[in-house]
Specification:
Layout (H helix, E strand, L loop, with lengths): L8 E6 L7 H7 L5 H7 L24 H13 L4 E8 L5 E2 L2 H9 L6 E5 L4 E2 L10 E3 L6 H16 L5 E2 L2 E6 L8 H14 L6 E6 L5 H6 L4 E4 L4 H6 L2 H12 L5 E4 H4 L13 E2 L1 E2 L6 H4 L4 E4 L3 H15 L8 E4 L3 E2 L4 E2 L9 H11 L2
Parallel strand pairs: 1-2, 1-15, 2-4, 4-8, 8-9, 9-10, 10-12, 11-14, 13-15
Antiparallel strand pairs: 2-3, 5-6, 7-8, 16-17
Helix pairs in contact: 5-6, 12-13
Amino acid sequence: MEMNRNDVKVLAFYLPQFHPIPENDKWYGKGFTEWTNVGKAKPLFRGHDQPKVPADLGYYDLRVPETRLAQAEMAREYGVTAFCYWHYWFGKEKRLLERPFNEVLRSGEPDFPFCLAWANHSWKGIYNGVKTKESLIEQEYGGREDYETHFYDVLPAFQDPRYVTVDGKPFFLLFSPGEVPEPRRFIELWQELAIKNGLKGIHFVAHTYQPGDIDRLLGMGYDAVNVVRLFEYQRIGLSLFRMAVNKINREVFKHGFWCQYKDAMRYFSGKEDGLENVYPTIVPNWDHSPRTGRYGGILKNSTPELFRKHVERVLEDVTKKSPAHRVVMLKSWNEWAEGNYMEPDLKHGRGYLEALRKALEKE
């Protein structure tokens, strides 16, 4: 069977933290953006590929329209269907990092599909190098009134013709689906509001790192589950010996927790990926050390060729589904401080983008 980029919706998670905001200035220092951690990263061991240096797009600022346009043109060229923007709503109308997406929405540019993923979790400073156990900002759930306010805040996006739909309904992903108090009530309310405002409903997607959670999340009322098996190798693939070695590497030699990408990628897909209501995740690379130092996980020796093989394996299951549910999440378009990105860098150029296109076009 011939596969092409029209067969599969490739939705790439998109991080908007590439522009300064007052809150980050306060927490991390004046002018902080995602590039701050990227630029100061250092190798933790021999052969550790740090720091990562962007190529074609440079150290961009997402307040610049030309940057957003260049990103979209590049994504379209290599088979990415849409950007799935991380959306930060902390309750009580508190938003962060909303400017890039709001400008995309207001301006109509770039003319490139998009959807939203609600990053409904508190922000911990430790994830960006701030040594505190306190939350910088807490995720709150204000009940029905706050849920309604939230819905009407994102309604203009849902109504935009660029917004990605599944079964005719806007695609909306929740990062921590089980953290919403009584999620079924939240889902039912938004479904009612969607119908009231001329939509067919909302296609709610639960995000999880645990394949065993699929049935539980569907039972809460979510329409589909996005499974991310990024850490499955650490959970079930490591021998006791390897676990001990990793602990020594991290605690004694300060190397961080690392494993080979080629070993971890065998666990990136699973039998559940063939289910109509399960959306798998493709992962080009991962290195969290720019944010968390030796406590961050690292996938060593990722290459575009290995990534292509991983994508091809996932597509084998996805292309067996009905066309509407051939959805793949790409983690991620531009999570540079997590070493998790598709954008060109000095080492691989457009290699990962080329690998994605080759996998999508393979007959």
